[in-house]
Amino acid sequence: MSLFGDYSNNASPVTWIDKYPIYLSQAIAIVHVACMIVFSVLFALRVNPLWTTGLLNFQSAEILGSFQVWRIFTYPLVAIASLDFAIMWVIYWFLAPEVEKGLSTRTFIRIYVATTLVLAALMMVVALIFGPVLYQGGRGITWVFFAAFCIMYPETILLFIPAWVVMWILLVINSLVDLMSHDPVSLTLMWAATGIAFVAVRMTGWGGKSLWIADKFEDWQLARAARKRNIQVVQEQKVTEDMDAILEKISREGMASLTPAEKAALEKARTRLIKRDKKE
Description:
The chain is mainly alpha-helical. The protein has helices spanning 24-44, 53-56, 60-66, 71-74, 83-103, 105-130, 139-152, 163-180, 184-203, 212-253, 260-279; strands at residues 15-17, 20-22, 58-59, 134-135, 157-158, 161-162.
């Protein structure tokens, strides 16, 4: 049961802890926290980072030079204990399930994967422009679902302020911080994640009218289906007219008067009728 409506058909818990349902979004948070604990312990034990975080974080030079493509998928899992990490994932824990329930688990997975891959692609672009990029952590993941929540439920009160206002305040503040610290990577990823959230939510029709590109795609599908149906109708009409002509010829001159092509067309029509009767 969602705090903002009943969307039980869209998402179901993957497990339960006592009487508390755990959704996929929360299971993902548990995985991220578990990775953070492991990396933090290894860091405390002074294990060489080259064999821990250095092996899984995003390094554009290693991806391009050594083809270590796994980094494109593993970088969100790399993190060590920090206050920022705790705040981000606590917010995610409470808000991400509402996004999952509203959009469906399948859509949630698509957003997670798309965010991971799109942000990785953008970091490669930034690397080509500004030089090698080193990045780790799930900031983009937590932000995309926070932004999605604010777009889906803009009037929900967070900290005595409407959710959409909170989102814009945080977005502007973080952008200013990134500009002052000359951090094009974080700036790009923050705005890209916001864009992904907007597109994903609007594509499903949440937060007002659906995104215009979704409407165009739906119109294209409908037009294509209509054209296909019209072609089929025309073809069926032509076949019917041909059969009428053949049957009329048979009634006047008999079966012996049919040409080989007319006999083949008649047999084809008979076979089609038999198949249609079997389906019915």
